[in-house]
Amino acid sequence: MMNENELIKKWMKYEKIKFDGWDFSHIKDSWENESLPWDYADIVKNYLSSDLELLDMGTGGGEFLLTLNHPYSKTSVTEGWKPNIELLRNKLEPLGIKVAPIGDDGIIDYGDNRFDMIINRHESFNIEEVKRVLKPNGIFITQQVGGKNGNRLSNMLIPNFLPKYEDLSLRNILRDLKEYNFDILFADEYFPYQKFFSMEALIYYAKVIEWEFPGFNVKNNFNQLLNAYDELKRNGYIRNYEHRFLIVAFNNKQS
Hints:
Layout: H1 4-14, E1 31-33, H2 40-47, E2 54-57, H3 63-67, E3 75-79, H4 82-91, E4 98-101, E5 115-121, H5 127-133, E6 134-145, H6 151-157, H7 170-179, E7 182-190, E8 193-196, H8 199-208, H9 222-235, E9 238-241, E10 244-251
Parallel strand pairs: 2-3, 2-5, 3-4, 5-6
Antiparallel strand pairs: 1-8, 6-10, 7-10, 8-9
């Protein structure tokens, strides 16, 4: 059996593994993620028709957006990550898709009453701005990562952990949307499990998701990692829980 110094050396190698883009293929056989009870893509397609003006907030690299095959002339995006903005201008604008950067203030750089439908997966948003650019009777669909996401593992590995987005929940966002006169057509919240089947997968994940594991490294958090290692040996996996919620809202406003 390895002593503690040998474990530290072995585990420190895991935290140095390079991570590119948003690709977790390195640990694909060493973790398991429970499926959500809804399908975001199916819900979007259920409300989308080719005549609608569509905005995809926080489109990333536009990968999901392009699977919708929506008419390019009726499609617009926002994106907040600077490296992606140049990529989108080269990738989407030649197709006729409109691209606008978005900052931390959530100001949407499009005109009033511009869109029939706004979709948003895992992107922060300013409800007042969504309301402004969405047409009367327009549809807003958002799937969010809730404030309890990963808290079991964060509390296990990070002493005195404080969640950054503790108030982000279905209940609170529904309250805010109703205050802005949105009618709720659908809402659901779920806490899917995650299982890590190796310390390599766990450490790799904790280094990548740095906002849930602030300051994490093997040397400083070794005692906490030993507790996780005990759980792995006892159960065959280390358990965590994600937090997701989805809302479909109808914009009830006067023209």
